[in-house]
Amino acid sequence: MVLFREVFGTAGYLIEAIGATIIVGGIILSSIWSVRRLSRLPTLDVYQQFRQDIARSIILGLEFLIAGDIIRTVTVDQTLTGAAVLALIVLIRVTLSITLHFEIEGRWPWRGPAQEK
C-alpha cells in the first residue's frame, strides 16, 4: 500500500509539473508568435491574439493541475481536510477555466454556437 501511494503521489506531482510547464511554455511561445505577428498585423490584433493564446495555454495547464491534485488527494491524502482543500482548489481552477473560455470565445462554454444571438 505504501508503494501504491508513493507511485501515485509521484505521478500526481509529475502531472502537476506538466501542467505548470504547459502554462510557462505557452506564455513563451505566445510571446514569440506575437513578436513575429507585429510586422504584418495591427498592434490591437496582435494583442488580442496574444491574450487568447495565453488563455488557451492556461486553460490546458489548469486541466493538468486539477488532474494532479485529484490523483494525489484520492491516493495519498485521504482525509476530509484534504478533500475539502481539493474541492476548493478545483472550484477556483474551474472558475478560472470558465472565465478564460469566455474571454477567448466571447461566450460561455455551455452555450454552443447555434445558441448565440
Describe the structure.
The chain has 117 residues and is an all-alpha fold. It has one domain (2-115). The chain is built from three helices and no strands. The chain has helices spanning 2-37, 43-75, 80-105. The protein starts with a helix and ends in a 12-residue tail after the last helix.
Features:
single chain; 117 residues; mainly alpha; 3 helices; 81% helix; 0% strand
How many β strands by DSSP?
0
Biggest sheet statistics: none
What structural class do helix, strand and pairing data support?
A: mainly alpha
What is the number of helices?
3
- Rg, nearest Å: 18 Å
What oligomeric state best describes the polypeptide chains here? single chain
Number of domains: 1
**Helix content estimate:** over 70%
Secondary-structure map:
Elements: H1 2-37, H2 43-75, H3 80-105
Helix pairs in contact: 1-2, 2-3
In short:
The chain has three helices and no strands. It is an all-alpha fold and 117 residues long. The radius of gyration is 18 Å and the shape is elongated.
